[in-house]
Amino acid sequence: MNLFNINLFQFKTKPEGKEKASEFLNEGFIAIGWSKVLDMTTMAKEDIRDALSSAYGYSGRSLSTNLGTVNTFKNVMRKGDVVLITQDGFVHIGIIGDYEYHPNKVKDGTCHRRSCDWRKMINKEELKEEVKSLLRNMTTVTKFPHPFVTSGIGEILGMVAKHEIPPTEHTHPIDIWEEEKEDKQTSPNEKDPEKLISRLGQLGTTALEILEEEMQSEDPDRRRKAAVDILSIIKNNPKTTTEEE
Predict the structure, then answer these.
(1) What counts of helices (H) and strands (E) characterise the chain?
(2) Where is the composition biased (Basic and acidic residues) (predicted)?
(3) Which of 198, 221, 209 is nearest to 172 (CA)?
């Protein structure tokens, strides 16, 4: 799974005004409502527009708003994306599947579905502020406006970003350090921090140069992240700590 291709969404649990959080969690799905619209399996955005206009009489801004929501569920969400729902102050994190139509659930308001593999439950306060802001959206489904890898959800789910970075992208130095720590568990020879320095030097653009560039960035968040990475490497490097003492 490539973390750089994943989208993150918040999702409300009341299709057509009926609370379905427990059903979502127990039966492994999410559903959007709009049950007057028939099977959307083959529908593109314009097909959905026509279906909403015909079934609900939407027009103008109302049509545009509802189209955006339904089309996001059907065509923007993809298998493998991550969804968040809230229940009793906790946030449930799931991996969604393909769109499915269940004609026997029309009266229930849950005929338009996506399967969902619920992976984690976490206290909302443990999430990053950007993700908490996403959850405060009142719309049925909202896409996280930032890259998934910045959300912190990947770490909660145990996904490892360093294996997913495209070859054309720089490897972040903290990922290299995490890989080094994993290697230490299997090979005593890897405990020498000099080997980490050697590996960094082999990069076309060294990790240290990347950090130096980040420290000069005009973006305060990027400078702050670079500083944290540098302190993390220093803290976890026994040789560096000894020399400072």
Answers:
(1) 10, 6
(2) 182-196
(3) 209
Backbone angles phi, psi at 238, to 5 degrees: -55, -40
Helix (H) or strand (E) segment spanning residue 53 = helix 45-56
Amino acid at 85: I
Nearest to 112 by CA among 56, 39, 180: 39
Which two three-digit tokens encode residue 82?
């991550």
pLDDT digits (tens, 9 = 90+) for 92-134: 999 999 999 999 999 999 999 999 999 999 999 999 999 999 9
Strands in 49-110 per DSSP E: 82-87, 90-101
Burial of residue 195, with CB atoms counted within 10 A of its CB: 0-12 exposed, 13-18 middle, 19 or more buried: middle
- The two tokens of residue 29 are 């799905």
Question: H or E segment at 192?
Answer: none
Handedness of CA 214, 219, 220, 224 (dihedral sign): negative
Question: Model pTM?
Answer: 0.65
> Any idea which residue has 């290299």 for tokens?
176
**Rounded CA separation 207/217 (Å):** 15
Residue type, 127: L
Q: How far apart are CA 208 and CA 186, in angstroms?
A: 26
Which burial class, exposed, middle or buried, applies to 111 when counting CB atoms under 10 A from its CB (0-12, 13-18, 19+)? buried
Contact 178, 171 (CB under 8 A): no
Q: What angle do CA 2, 213, 243 make, to 5 degrees?
A: 100
Taking only Cα atoms into account, the Rg of the chain, rounded to an integer number of angstroms, comes to 23
